[in-house]
């Protein structure tokens, strides 16, 4: 996609439409879809829409500073690019493109275990603030090797995703018969034929691989078992003691992703987690689970300022970032927002997504009379009656 066309994508939703237009439907559905009825997927976005802003006026907002400190280091935005798997199936080299876009703004980038780039490739081609997101594999030797490689490659953080003991039931993938490696079948032939540029590239150059999972049991869709393509190799017995052993081995920042219940916070802080991510896996695991914005304030209150709390899920606008900050988040992680950018236009598309979010965040700060991130407090929000009591009880108060 040309830069001129990307410039016409003035919102994340426009980037989403551009990505959808160039990908076969089963591939787009893999990135877009959620679990079962996709209630949580939609609710993640709707939670932001239910919250209203209450701007202050007659403030000097001629200069706005959106710089933040994320895990002790400066970033140009209160944002990290979160882990997204199989990106190279949507845009060849997409993982590297996302990492480079993040590095350009001093933002952390989290590489997924199921990425189509290796730990070392990212470190060599896109040096910056790198986190490695480790799925808890049943193959413990493989998991230990991946963690050791991330340490040797200089990754500053290890992210452990704890909301994936088993794979969610992703019915779009089941309906499309999607497996990895992706295959053209009589059932999906015409869907791939409608996107000849993507299909010919995969046919001639062959599909990418997932280096961190290479050699493991082949993952296919299983309609009889009603399992999705995710979670086949993950360990459902992983518990707090197992996480503590990883903490003992990893000497740098440990980030725990997938926390939504305040009762889980104390033990995670106690074992030495350096940051928590309020996440429901983008609505791709447990359907009808709580929206992350609705869960945020309870986690912030339980953390009590001892560790920073990030949020992912449903972030599509700069105003969404603003609302998360007002409710106590130290920053957000983007998943689909930056993914749509890279799927639409590679590195230029990823940068475009970040530019959109930065422009919208700074514009929201100006329109709300808050020139610095520290000015964004609870009193700029109007919370709907339908939100959980934990938000009203624990929402960040004005400083």
Automatic annotation (TrEMBL):
CDD domains xrefs: alpha_hydroxyacid_oxid_FMN (cd02809)
FMN hydroxy acid dehydrogenase domain residues: 4-386
Residues holding FMN: 83-85, 112, 133, 161, 257, 279, 312-316, 335-336
Cofactor dependence: FMN
Keyword Oxidoreductase listed: yes
SUPFAM superfamilies: FMN-linked oxidoreductases
InterPro entries reported in the protein's UniProt record: Aldolase_TIM, Alpha-hydoxy_acid_DH_FMN, FMN-dep_DH, FMN_HAD, FMN_hydac_DH_AS
Record-stated family: Belongs to the FMN-dependent alpha-hydroxy acid dehydrogenase family.
This protein's name: Alpha-hydroxy-acid oxidizing enzyme
Provenance organism: Bordetella genomosp. 11
